[in-house]
Predict the 3D structure of the following.
Amino acid sequence: MQYRHAPAANHAALDAVLASAPGRPTLPVRLTVELAGRARAHLPADAPLTVWDPCCGAGVTLTVLGLLVPGITRLVGTDADPEPLDLARRNLALLDPGGLAARAADLDALAARHDKPSYADAATAARTLVPASTPAWSVAVADARDTAAVRGVLAEASPDDAGPDLVLADLPHGIRTTWAAAPTRPAGAAADTPAPDAGPARAAAADQAQDQAPGVEFLRAVATVLRPDAVVVAVGRGRTVALPPGVRPLERVRVGHRAAVLVRAGALRDD
Ligand SMILES: C[S@@+](CC[C@H](N)C(=O)[O-])C[C@H]1O[C@@H](n2cnc3c(N)ncnc32)[C@H](O)[C@@H]1O
């Protein structure tokens, strides 16, 4: 992938300003900014932007966007796991007035206590940073596949606007960031599996298997609560991010061991 929206930069100091948890890998800063830039190119120019991360974890993705991408008016984070949300609140508080100064003071104290120049460098970075956006933000627990819960959270987070314009989700991978257990299907609602005898039946079975992949189920559920013109960006590990059968992406990108897909919410919806 060629970077078009995120110039090369050393983000090590910014990484040090952000709080993250061991075993919870986050998206590289430059890739986060690039994907937001690409998504924005598919949205009305200069419109204020509400961004939702439905797998927000420690809130690093959202905070990086607020710090480095202008024009964001609202950030909403949800995650099925309550555990990382305190970290997310701590990171997103960097976007509040005085947030970076408070973090710089904490880092100064750490530098003094541990005699570590890296903390001092991070403190300097915190003092130097000027957030590109000063969005309202909120985080809440919600399984992204629980559309009723998610609708409630989004309505509460942004009662006065049309909901998220952009979704940026770093899909679960690895040990600490696995998919939450799937919600149980109501009795009798399990999909029938066609006998994989003839070609068309086999193709249908393959389509169905793809459709049931957790990432595909996740994308469909996320799209249900969005305006059709919203743009969804999903990032995964591996060669590709699966879409429901027949859905055409706006763009696909590959960077190292990651793949991302940009897709219009309306394309993911059945209705
Ligand atoms: C790769 S991490 C995301 C990291 C995050 N972007 C950050 O900045 O820290 C994936 C997250 O997805 C969450 N997750 C797993 N299954 C989920 C589901 N069904 N709905 C919402 N979140 C889920 C995990 O709890 C984990 O925090």
